[in-house]
Structure formats: structure tokens, C-alpha cells
Structure of YigZ family protein:
Amino acid sequence: MQAYRTISEKGTAAYEIQKSKFYAYTAPAATEEQAREFVAAIKKKHFDARHNCSAWVLGADSSQQKSNDDGEPGGTAGNPILEAIKQHGLTNIVVVVTRYFGGIKLGAGGLIRAYSHIATLGLEATPQVEIKPVCLMAAELDYTMLGTVENWIRSEGLRAAPAEYLDKVTVKLLIEPQDVEKIRTNLINLTAARCHITVAEPEYMAVPAEA
């Protein structure tokens, strides 16, 4: 499992140059089917537009990539959109750019710049998240040690899930796989080995993306 960056919701942006109007639409997409459905939905929304160009990148390793010029000269629309996605380091995302032709030709270079710019505007207007593999670490301990452990969690800046309060308290931490052994050792030392620790297999979790 590897970490990757994606978007957390849909986004939009608009741009006008030489009377041509461009509209960018972004959406999360985990599969090619989801990406195709989003493209189809935008084409239906803008059925009267001359072009609805698109690109998507899928997979934690960004291995699935596709672009479509939708009638624009080859390489002037879909590929600039795709490059904008890649430059932002995003995956599991689809971007559609709708163009209403304003009667003035932009030329190949102008089209590339316009589609790249509007795609970038759309991406920058969309909230991003980091998807990271995280292990749930549960530490069962006596209530007498809870204050000490909670202070340690805050001082270390660790992410915690809601604790479970029964005969003993079970503190739950969300730990990246490479940090599991270090955190386990620290907990054992902190409690003088008076805690029972279990660690679940890693699962993907979304966290706010760093700028």
C-alpha cells in the first residue's frame, strides 16, 4: 500500500479568452467506470457545447491515464488537462473541460495554454486530501495510566480514534505502518509494560493534504 493525493469532492472553475468560454469540472473517481459516467454527465449538461474534453488518472500508482480531445486538434486539449493533473500529483480524479467557441480561433498553442490554465484553475479550486495507509493500534490499560498516556499522545501529535471505556480503558491510535514498532515500544515503556496492545492490518484513510 502506498500513499497518494486525490480530491475529496467535486469542483468547478470558469475562464474566458478571445470570446471562447471554458468551464472546468473535477470529480473523484476510483474506477474507469466512474470516470466515464462523470464525463457523460458533463456532456449531457453541456450538450450544446462544441467540445467537452477530458482526462483522468486512476490507481494509487497513477498507472491508468487517459485523455480525450473531443474534436479539438490532436494534443491541444486532453493532454494539457492530463498534464495539469499530473503536475498537481493527483490520482483517482477525472477532469472535464467544456468549451463554447467564441468565433475567434486560438491556434494550437493558444488552445494548449487555455486548456492547461482552466484545468489548473479547476484543480486549485477543489479540496485535496492525502490517502495514506494507517494501522489502528489499540492499547488496553488501567484508568490510572490514562492521563499520562493522553498527555503523551498530545505531545507526540498522534492521531487518536475515540477511546473505549469498560473495566479498563482502550486507547486507540491511527499510526502509519512504518511508525508502528516505534509507537508500540514507546507505549510499553511509558506504561512499564502494563498495557495490552493490538495492531490491525493497514487500511487507507483520508487526511487533509499539506500545501
The chain has five helices and eleven strands. The chain has two domains: 4-126, 131-208. Residues 131-208 form a domain with the Alpha-Beta Plaits fold (CATH 3.30.70.240).
